[in-house]
UniProtKB/TrEMBL annotation:
KW Cytoplasm (keyword) present: yes
Quaternary structure annotation from Swiss-Prot or TrEMBL: Interacts with ribosomal protein uL14 (rplN).
Similarity field: Belongs to the Iojap/RsfS family.
Protein name (database record): Ribosomal silencing factor RsfS
Biological process according to GO: cytosolic ribosome assembly; negative regulation of ribosome biogenesis; negative regulation of translation
Main location: cytoplasm
Keyword Cytoplasm among record annotations: yes
Organism the protein comes from: Anaerosphaera multitolerans
InterPro entries membership: Iojap/RsfS/C7orf30, NT_sf
NCBIfam families for the chain: rsfS_iojap_ybeB
Length: 113
């Protein structure tokens, strides 16, 4: 089931031309999730479109979102699917917060696109 969710999320990001898609395996490192998916958009409208596409495709597959944060700002949107947390950044916010660096010593990059 997790593999299917990850596939849907990554495909949705690719379909909306998400930038620098990364899947981090944080299983056993954090109690909040097993995976982070990190993706960037070049504009607020692309960030919003990425979130909308992921939500739509996941819902079509029968997966409902547990929590959604940041939709109003469209600079950093978090989609929480329980075992997977998707971080959709405006490119400037991604550079500033640099989640990959924070988790790089501990996590395993599963996929880089």
């Amino acid at each position: 089931m997790v593999k299917e969710k990850l596939d849907i999320i990554v495909k949705s990001c690719e379909d909306k031309k998400g930038i620098d898609i990364k899947v981090l395996d944080i299983n056993g490192l954090s109690s909040i999730a097993d995976y982070f998916v990190i993706v960037s958009g070049n504009s607020s409208s692309q960030v919003s479109a990425l979130a909308d596409e992921i939500e739509e495709k996941m819902l079509e597959a029968g997966y409902s979102i547990d929590n959604l944060e940041g939709k109003n700002s469209m600079r950093w949107i978090i989609l929480d699917y329980s075992d997977i947390i998707v971080h959709i950044f405006h490119k400037e916010e991604r550079e500033y917060y640099d989640l990959e660096r924070l988790w790089s010593d501990e996590s395993n990059f599963i996929e880089e696109k």
